[in-house]
Amino acid sequence: MRALDLACGGGRHSRLLLEHGLHVTAVDRDAEALLLVPEPARVLCADLESGPWPLDGEQFDLVLVTNYLWRPLLPRIVDSVAEGGWLVYETFAVGQELLGRPRNPDFLLQPGELLAACQGKLHVLAYEDGIVNGARIQRVAARHLRPHESPPVWPLLESPAPQESAP
Predict the structure, then answer these.
(1) How many other CB atoms are there within 10 angstroms of residue 100's CB atom?
(2) CA within 20 to 30 Å of 132's CA: 21, 96, 140, 166, which one?
(3) Strands lying side by side in the sheet with 60-66
(4) How many CB atoms lie within 10 A of CB 159?
(5) CA distances from 66 to 8, 12, 105, 138 (A)
(6) What is the distance between the alpha carbons of residues 139 and 129, in angstroms, rounded to a whole number?
(7) 130 bridge partner residues
């Protein structure tokens, strides 16, 4: 399986993905931080905000993004998820400016924004918008369904069968 660790910093998540046998592409603009990403990860030093998208035509079984937001990239990130693949994305949301950094609204998701980025392209299995460990975040786990694959029906979400009442 191929994984993309986008805006990976020193590769904390890349390391874990490699330990689980995934082929990792780690992307960040900080060349010095990328020196910490372990081999055999494929390391790309790229400025995602002012340079060209470094992964044209590539798709991954897992796209992982944490603590990073550059709105113009949201469609490209979603399009990088291969059929049957996953997007796991977590970053700060509006309200975080009252709790700590980041405070710049350019780096804070609006309510429902991460969910909307997935809509129509990925099947969202989990979404959260709230305070977690003292930070205001949004996170999503979504899957790119294969053609003719139906979204899963979870037994806990099914309505119980009607019970006949005793006379």
Answers:
(1) 11
(2) 21
(3) 42-45, 23-28, 2-6, 60-66, 81-92, 135-143, 123-132
(4) 5
(5) 8, 11, 17, 10
(6) 7
(7) 137
pLDDT at 146: 83
CB of 80 closer than 8 Å to CB of 58: yes
The whole model's pTM is what?
A: 0.88
Taking CA atoms, 27 is separated from 51, 58, 148, in Å, by: 13, 13, 32
CA 49 to chain centroid: 17
DSSP assignments along 57-89, one per residue? T--EEEEEEES---GGGHHHHHHTEEEEEEEEE
Q: Provide the β-strand partners of residue 115.
A: none
Residue appearing with tokens 């998208």: 53
Between 54 and 155, whose confidence is greater? Answer: 54
